[in-house]
């Protein structure tokens, strides 16, 4: 008998979490009653590291997703397949915005399959309103002092202002 999916991971760096990420989490909840947002350490993201520390990214994600029943936020280091085994997740849900996302995510899914054939990969297409949105674009806008309130939750906008503009904000 085939095992039903009861727990999925939504992995990412979440540097920072955006409304696009939150949309993927909401859609994952439609597929499965239990979702773990897996915040990756990603020490060498794009060769420069992350803007926020792992602890900060986890806390921002927890605050952004507060009130979503069935959602947990956890940090992880190492291989995603090992983390999936550790938390007994059955699948990975990833959002796709464009063909470039698909190519990268397909490579990751193929590698994960080779490491653990029992871990399913599920792709959801980005909602049109978030198809352009990425953490890197949000960081760039914030670094120039631009308003990011329409792209990220208030707690994230405040943290970005503090990080890039020196304005106080509590994470």
CATH topology annotation: Rossmann fold
Overall mean pLDDT stands at 92
Number of helices: 6
Strand content: 15-25%
What series of H and E elements makes up the topology? Answer: EHEHEHEHEHH
Chain oligomer state: single chain
By CATH, the architecture is named 3-Layer(aba) Sandwich
CATH superfamily: HUPs
> Could you say which overall geometry the principal axes of the C-alpha atoms support?
globular
Unreliable segments (pLDDT under 50, ≥5 consecutive)? none
Alpha-carbon distance between the termini?
Answer: 46 Å
What count of structural domains? 1
InterPro entries: Cyt_trans-like, PPAT, Rossmann-like_a/b/a_fold
GO molecular function: ATP binding; pantetheine-phosphate adenylyltransferase activity
EC number: 2.7.7.3
Cofactor: Mg(2+)
Helix and strand arrangement:
Blueprint: E1 8-12, H1 19-31, E2 35-40, H2 54-65, E3 71-76, H3 80-87, E4 91-96, H4 99-115, E5 120-125, H5 135-143, H6 154-165
Parallel strand pairs: 1-2, 1-4, 2-3, 4-5
